C-alpha cells in the first residue's frame, strides 16, 4: 500500500469546495436527464456545440495527450530516463478520457444511444471514427494502467503477462491517439461558412494534433509540479527540463504551421481593425505559444520547477484558448449568433475537473503511482528475528 494512504484525511477548504461541486453535478445531472438538455444549457439548433464540447471534450482529449507521448518515449524510443513520469502521465490520460466520456454523455441529445456506433457503422462519418478511436484508446489506457493495480494486489504472474505485451499496446495507443486527436479538427471542416477565417483551415487536423502534443507535455509538467506540492515528493526537475526543451520544438512547429497557414489563406488581414476575435487570437498564440516558447528556450529558466510549471501552465492555457476559439469564438463570429454558457454548463465543466482531481489524489494515495512505490518492496525479516545492523566503515577499521 502507498505510504500516502496511511496519512489521515484532512477536510480543508478545497475539499469542501470540490464536495459542493460534485454534489451540484449530481443535481444538474438529474435535471438534464429528466427534463432534457435544453433545461440546463443555452444551446440551440443554431448553436448546438458549446462549452461541453469545446472544453469537456476537445480540451479533455487534448490535455490527456501526455499519456501517449510519454509512453511512446519510454517504450518505443527506449528513453528509459523518463520512466519515473510514465505512470502519473498514464493516470492523467486515463482519468482525462473517462471524464471526456462523462462530458459526452451530458452533451448528447440522446445519451442512451451512445452504444449505437458499436453496431451501426457509418465509416463516412468523422464522428464515427472519433467515437471508435475514443472507445478503443480508453481500452488501451485501461490496459496500460492495469500493471499499477496488479502490483498493488500482488498478482505477479498476470503482471508479467501484461508487461510482456505492453509495447504492443503502446504502439496501438499511439496510432489511435494520433487518429482521433487529428479527427477532432476534422469535425470543423464540415462547417466552412460557420467558422471564422482565423480558425477555419484545411490544416485543422494537423494543428489539432500538434497542439495536443504540446498541451499533453505541458499537462505532464504541471501535474508533476502539483504532485510534489500535494504529496511532498521530489520533483524530477532534470527530466521535466528535458521534456520542456522538447516543448520548444513542438511549439515552434505549431507556430510555423499556424502562421504559414494564415499567410497562405490571406487570413491575417482579418486581424485589422482589431476586434474581439483578434484579441482572442492574440491570447491564444501570444500568451499560449510564443511567450512560453521563449521562456522555455532558456536553460537557466528550465532549472526552476516553479518557472517550469508557470510556463507550461501558459501552454495549457493557450491550448484551452485554441479549442474554445475554434468551437465557440469562431462560430459566433461567422454566424453572428451569441452564445453564453449557462451557470449549469459552467458548473458541470468545473465539477468534472474537481472530480478528476479527487480521483487523481485517491489513486496516488492507494496505488503505486510514483517511482519509489512502483519498485518491489524489500522482503521483511520474520517475526522475532532482528535484522542485522550495518557496521560503519570507521568501526571496521578500528576493529581491524
Uncertain segments of ≥5 residues (pLDDT<50)?
A: 373-400
| Percent of residues in beta strands | under 5%
CATH topology: Formate dehydrogenase/DMSO reductase fold
The CATH first-level class comes to: Mainly Alpha
Biggest sheet overview: none
Mean pLDDT: 86
Helix percent reads 55-70%
Q: What name goes with the CATH superfamily?
A: Formate dehydrogenase/DMSO reductase domain
Query: What is the CATH architecture descriptor?
Result: Up-down Bundle
Structural class label: mainly alpha
| Tally of individual domains | 1
Q: Give the topology string: H per helix, E per strand.
A: HHHHHHHHHHHHHHH
By DSSP, the count of extended strands is: 0
Terminal-residue CA separation = 43 Å
Structure overview:
With 400 residues, the protein is mostly helical. The chain contains 15 helices and no strands. The radius of gyration is 23 Å and the shape is globular. Residues 373-400 have low confidence and may be disordered.
Amino acid at each position: 500500500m502507498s505510504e500516502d494512504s496511511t496519512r489521515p484525511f484532512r477536510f480543508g477548504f478545497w475539499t469542501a469546495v470540490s464536495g459542493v461541486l460534485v454534489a451540484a453535478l449530481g443535481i444538474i445531472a438529474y435535471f438534464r436527464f429528466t427534463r432534457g438538455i435544453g433545461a440546463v444549457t443555452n444551446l440551440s439548433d443554431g448553436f448546438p456545440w458549446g462549452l461541453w464540447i469545446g472544453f469537456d471534450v476537445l480540451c479533455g482529449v487534448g490535455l490527456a495527450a501526455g499519456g501517449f507521448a510519454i509512453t511512446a518515449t519510454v517504450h518505443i524510443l527506449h528513453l528509459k530516463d523518463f520512466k519515473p513520469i510514465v505512470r502519473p502521465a498514464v493516470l492523467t490520460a486515463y482519468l482525462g478520457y473517462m471524464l471526456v466520456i462523462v462530458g459526452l454523455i451530458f452533451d448528447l441529445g440522446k445519451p442512451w444511444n451512445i452504444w449505437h456506433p458499436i453496431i451501426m457503422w457509418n465509416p463516412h462519418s468523422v464522428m464515427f471514427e472519433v467515437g471508435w478511436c475514443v472507445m478503443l484508446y480508453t481500452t488501451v489506457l485501461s490496459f496500460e494502467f492495469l500493471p499499477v493495480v496488479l502490483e498493488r494486489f500482488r498478482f505477479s504472474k498476470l503482471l508479467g503477462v501484461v508487461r510482456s505485451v505492453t509495447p504492443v499496446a503502446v504502439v496501438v495507443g499511439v496510432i489511435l491517439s494520433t487518429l482521433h486527436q487529428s479527427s477532432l479538427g476534422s469535425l470543423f471542416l464540415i462547417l466552412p461558412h460557420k467558422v471564422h477565417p482565423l480558425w477555419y483551415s484545411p490544416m485543422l487536423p494537423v494543428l489539432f494534433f500538434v497542439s495536443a502534443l504540446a498541451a499533453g507535455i505541458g499537462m505532464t509538467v504541471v501535474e508533476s509540479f502539483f504532485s510534489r506540492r500535494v504529496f511532498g515528493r521530489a520533483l524530477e526537475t532534470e527530466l521535466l527540463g528535458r521534456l520542456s526543451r522538447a516543448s520548444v520544438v513542438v511549439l515552434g512547429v505549431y507556430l510555423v504551421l499556424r502562421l504559414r497557414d494564415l499567410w497562405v489563406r490571406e487570413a491575417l488581414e482579418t486581424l485589422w481593425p482589431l476586434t474581439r476575435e483578434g484579441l482572442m487570437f492574440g491570447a491564444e498564440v501570444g500568451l499560449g505559444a510564443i511567450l512560453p516558447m521563449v521562456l522555455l528556450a532558456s536553460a537557466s529558466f528550465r532549472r526552476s520547477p516553479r518557472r517550469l510549471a508557470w510556463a507550461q501552465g501558459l501552454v495549457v492555457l493557450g491550448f484551452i484558448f485554441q479549442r474554445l476559439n475554434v468551437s465557440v469564438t469562431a462560430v459566433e463570429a461567422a454566424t453572428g449568433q451569441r452564445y453564453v454558457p449557462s451557470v449549469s454548463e459552467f458548473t458541470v465543466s468545473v465539477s468534472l475537473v474537481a472530480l478528476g482531481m479527487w480521483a487523481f489524489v485517491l489513486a496516488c494515495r492507494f496505488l503505486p503511482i510514483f517511482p519509489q512505490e512502483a519498485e518491489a518492496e524489500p522482503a521483511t525479516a520474520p517475526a522475532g528475528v532482528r535484522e542485522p545492523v550495518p557496521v560503519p566503515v570507521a568501526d571496521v577499521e578500528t576493529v581491524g
